[in-house]
Amino acid sequence: MKEYQCPLCGYSYDPAAGDPENGVAPGTAFENLPDSWYCPACGIGLEQYKSGRKKSAFGAESMAAIIG
Ligand SMILES: [Zn+2]
Asked: Is the CATH number 2.20.28.10 carried by domain 4-67?
């Protein structure tokens, strides 16, 4: 089974280990995580975790807006 890395903090969800502290049994594939699951390291939701890539919560556009 494939590991999925958190796009925000780099935490890696390991299906073989699951996430017992959050009620996810070992052997649970990433695809089978409950919608309520969130990254145990930084707390982003499953949707954001999935949508992934190295894209921070602030897109390039909002950075430009901050800079002016
Ligand atoms: Zn994270």
From this structure: yes
Tokens of 56: 């921070």
**Helix (H, G, I), strand (E, B), or coil: what is residue 4?**
strand
* Distance from the alpha carbon of residue 32 to the mean position of ligand 1, in angstroms: 18
- What percent of the chain has a predicted confidence (pLDDT) above 70? 76
46 vs 39: CA distance, rounded Å:
7
State how far the alpha carbon of 7 is from the alpha carbons of 26, 32, 47, 66, 67, in Å. Answer: 22, 19, 11, 22, 23
What is the whole-number distance in angstroms between the Cα of residue 67 and the centre of ligand 1? Answer: 26
pTM of the model: 0.69
pLDDT in tens, 7-30: 999 999 999 999 999 999 999 999
